[in-house]
Amino acid sequence: MARSGSRAGLLGRQNECQVLDDLLAGVKVGRSGVLVLRGEAGIGKTELLRYLLDRAAGCRTVRLAGVQSEMELSYAGLHQLCAPLLAGLDRLPGPQRDALGTAFGLRAGAAPDRFLVGLATLSLLADAGGDRPLVCLIDDAQWLDHVSAQTLAFVARRLLAESVVLVFAAREPSPGEALGSLPDLLVTGLTESDSRKLLDSVVTGPLDQRVRERIVAESGGNPLALLELPRRLAVGELAGGFGRPDAGPLSSQIEQGFLRRVQSLPAETRRLLFTAAAEPVGDVTLLRRAAERLGIDVDTAASHADAAELITLGTRVRFRHPLVRSAAYRAASANDRREAHRALADATDARLDPDRRAWHLAGAASGPDETVAAELERSAGRAQARGGIAATAAFLQRAAALTQDPVRRARRTVEAARATLHAGAFEPAATLLATAEAGPLDELGRARIDVLHAEIAFAQNRGREAPSLLLAAAHRFGPLDVALARDTYLDAVAAAIFAGRLAHGPGLREVGEAARAAPPQRPARLPDRLLDAIAVRLTDGYAASVPLMERVLAAFCDEEIPVQEALRRLWLAGVLASDLWDDERGHLLATRHLTITRRAGALSALPDVLESRAHMHLLAGELAAAALLVEEVGTVCAAIGSNPTRVLPLGLAAWRGREREARTLLDAIMSEAVPRGQGAAVTVSHWYHAVLCNGLGQYTEALAAAREAAAHPYEFASPRWGLAELIEAAVRSGLPQAATDALEQLSEATQASGTDWALGVEARSRALLSEGDAAELLYREAIERLARTRVRVELARAQLLYGEWLRRENRRVDARAQLGVAHEEFSRIGAEAFAERARSELQATGAKVRRHTVATPTALTSQEAQIARLAGEGLTNSEIGTQLFLSPHTVEWHLRKVFSKLGISSRKEIRTLRLEGEATSA
Questions:
Q1: How far apart are CA 172 and CA 185, in angstroms?
Q2: What pLDDT digit, counting tens, does each position of 129-148 carry?
Q3: Which of 369, 467, 822, 864 could bridge 800 with an S-S bond, Cβ 3.0-4.6 Å?
Q4: How far apart are CA 301 and CA 622, in angstroms?
């Protein structure tokens, strides 16, 4: 792009330069900045990055350029950006250090969670910007490997108080692009006046006025086009317009111009260019070694005058523009490309970079080659160990393509499909599975294909078809691998629980029957005992399964469980705890699961685990603590790009009695959960709806919602809880028979469970249908039992119902005592509808009571409240940042605001304050 003396005066880019100057000024005073420069190829984005680089005096700068041929190699781009900063790796918290080191292949370890890698990158950049501002320039971001782009977008969304600027240059956004949510600046074409100035600066001979106007019009103000289009025109065309009118699209015209320029170079120079184009890293030393093997004198070849305008060999190999690289590669014949890749493979150190060597060997192959395919398969294993799922898929697909033996090719294709699926590419994975199915597969291979089809179905529509597909796979596994078969049956059970009433094909009972018939595992592992207990629950009924469920639940609580097994199965154990009305073990399991998930950095699983823990807070009446976890769920989902249907916000709104908010959430959940096949979410939502309406005294609607919640008794937990809501709503609606029928169903489960929670809810429900001394004894039993549990909301409801009964018995003084306790408890926890119901009843006894308003001692934002609570619990800035996906610098910035708002000066003082959400959330 033309300049007026220096880059300080980029022609026609005053506004863009001002935006970049403002970013630079901000970072120098400790304010982070993020910007995506967008525009078509050749529009001047790279020149604007160079302008920023020239102006970044006093700042540390790191650069990255995406390369199209490296898009399959996970973390390749991120590694290039972070390489100059890795001296700070050892200063990161242990899990972050290990995750980033493993992703970059610097240390061995299990595949890291990619979002923990993102947090580590954020910490690394923030640390690097601690001494002097850090400016990160990312060119051709549209060609970053997917996981690097996701990681950098994750980091960009969390920069706030760090001295770090991230500036990307990218083409126009595509659907689902990782950078799509970041602030951007559209770089458009130059004005006609500036276009003429730029064109005149490169045309030295005569230029016909009409040709000038045509070039300006065709270029659309694209600076690269204005510089390159005149090169493809002969003198006569420039002087008189006597040329061919069949020009193609602008980008094609530019690339064709570069292609002609490459083709006009001497043979040795052409070979140097397409060898450099085949080597995406830009390693000058590697290029020289490869060129030597090809008999190319690099210095002589690169010294050609025209070559110097296309490629620069400095500390790195740099093409003038990405279109030059693609044109150089296109200029080579297929045989020339294979020779270049062979030379690059021979020049690559097999010990230091075996994966890139394998990739070049694949490029050098002219047909099936088992030696290369096996090397690619080993590279896939190394990529998987680093957490590079997309790279794993790419290596396996190439390995399969180079495999001659049909059996081995089918197996590698199945593994490629698995990796492709886990990389989030569902349709390509399905295509690979179809290819594999056409090959010779044994029963084990076909069973693995069934599992992958189930995973695709689950990912695409949230589980409608998954149970039947998993059952088919488990049946195939049975004669071949008993442990694998039983694990797959357990996965089918989990999918059926998730799908619930909306499952297509076999439902919970059918899955239970199939699991019951599964071959036994000797000795039985903990997952086997879990499967047996659930199978009995789904076939012989609730009462028959209680002893088995209690034993397996005790084992999950008392035995040491490997981390991976805990991550996979604790959710299902928590479902059993809820089904058994076992609040103590439910609390223990939810807490343990959250601790293990945080410690393992399994961020993909974290939203579900947080919701399980938040649910226990709701039952305990710790609504503020639940709200903080719901907030964290939103933070994590935004961080990982996940957007499934979430029911806990509805639960929170329902218990708080916030009708408008709850109804809006209910409508949204139903519109999403039904088409996605999330039957369990539908059932839980009906239960929350019933709770909301009972709190508001809208008993007819509560009755209808409770009937929906209880309609599918094979589902876990929520149908029984729905029966309790149904009984209260039916009694208040004057439908005692409906309440009696529901009580009979409820008591079958509560008597079998035998916990204080279960028997307390039964006693409270039975009291609603009783009179005189019998009713009073039952209310007192309910209060006594529920007082021994963690489910404080159920205790307060028992006190409310007892107080209402006492008032109707004209025992006003006794009624005031119970209603006063209930009102105080509901007000304290923020259950506004139930508190208002208790207040109205108190007023009916003649008591004077004011409406309780939840006072907040501060004006903290929800994030400030989270940070304050965690700081009060003794967590360091780094630990808080890890939990909330922030850098320590941003945590410190928020804490300064907290101190200012609260009028305190130390963390110790936070502990003395009563902040909303003070109940522990972990």
A1: 11
A2: 888 999 999 998 988 888 88
A3: 822
A4: 73
* CA 117-642-686 angle, 5° bins: 140
pLDDT for res 535: 96
Which residues, 6+ apart, have CB-to-CB distance to 808 below 8 Å? Answer: none
At 167, phi and psi to the nearest 5? -125, 120
CA-nearest of 78, 164, 127 to 878 is 127
Q: Which residues pair with 138 in a beta bridge?
A: 64, 168
Instruction: Quickly state the pLDDT bin for 251 (edges 50, 70, 90).
Output: low
Cα gap 650→317, rounded to integer Å: 56
Q: Tell me what pLDDT residue 550 has.
A: 96
The values of phi and psi at residue 344, to 5°, are -65, -40
Of 102-111, 181-190, 857-866, the range with the lowest mean pLDDT is 857-866
**pLDDT at residue 745 is higher than 60:** yes
Query: CA 779 to CA 802: how far, in whole Å?
Result: 6
Q: Where are the beta strands (DSSP E) in 3-71?
A: 3-4, 6-10, 33-38, 60-65
Q: What's the Cα-to-Cα distance from 648 to each of 456, 489, 629, 630, 780, rounded to whole Å?
A: 26, 28, 10, 7, 31
Supply 867's token pair. Answer: 């940070």
- Could you give the CA distance from residue 893 to residue 162 in angstroms, rounded to a whole number? 9
Greater confidence (184 vs 875) lies with: 184
Q: Which residues contact 488 (CB under 8 A, 6 or more apart)?
A: 447, 451, 470, 473, 474, 477
User: Percentage helix, strand, coil, to 5, in the chain?
Assistant: 70, 5, 30
Distance CA 860, CA 633 (A): 19
Q: DSSP 3-state assignment of 439? A: coil
Q: Is the distance from CB of 779 to CB of 747 less than 8 angstroms?
A: no
How far apart CA 328 and CA 257 sit, in angstroms, is 11
With a cut of 60, say whether residue 732 has pLDDT above it. Answer: yes
**Calpha distance 255→59 (Å, rounded):** 36
C-alpha dihedral, 826 to 828 to 833 to 834, nearest 10° = 10
| CB-based burial, 181-201: b 16+ in 10 Å, e otherwise | ebebbebbbbeeebbbbbbee
Confidence of residue 463 (pLDDT cuts 50, 70, 90): low
Order across the sheet with 33-38: list the strands: 60-65, 134-139, 164-170, 33-38, 184-186
Contact 711, 504 (CB under 8 A): no
Tokens 């097999």, residue located: 350
Q: How far is the C-alpha of 15 from the C-alpha of 469, rounded, in Å? A: 57
CB 432 within 8 A of CB 454: no
Structure tokens, 70: 């490296």
Read off the pTM.
0.70
For the chain, percent of residues with pLDDT exceeding 70: 89
Using CB atoms within 10 A of its CB, is residue 315 exposed (0-12), middle (13-18) or buried (19+)? exposed
Nearest Cα to Cα of residue 584 among 593, 574, 594: 574
Residues in the chain: 922
Phi, psi of 38 (to 5 degrees): -115, 145
Q: Which of 384, 444, 424 is nearest to 178 (CA)?
A: 424
The answer to whether 725 and 702 have CB atoms below 8 angstroms apart is yes
Is the predicted pLDDT of residue 243 greater than 60, yes or no? no
CA atoms within 13 A on the CB side of 857: 13
Angle at 356 between CA 351 and CA 361, to 5 degrees: 100
Find all residues with CB under 8 Å of 150, minimum gap 6, and list them: 114, 118, 178, 641
Q: Enumerate long-range contacts of 668-672, CB under 8 Å, 24 or more apart.
A: 669/645, 672/645
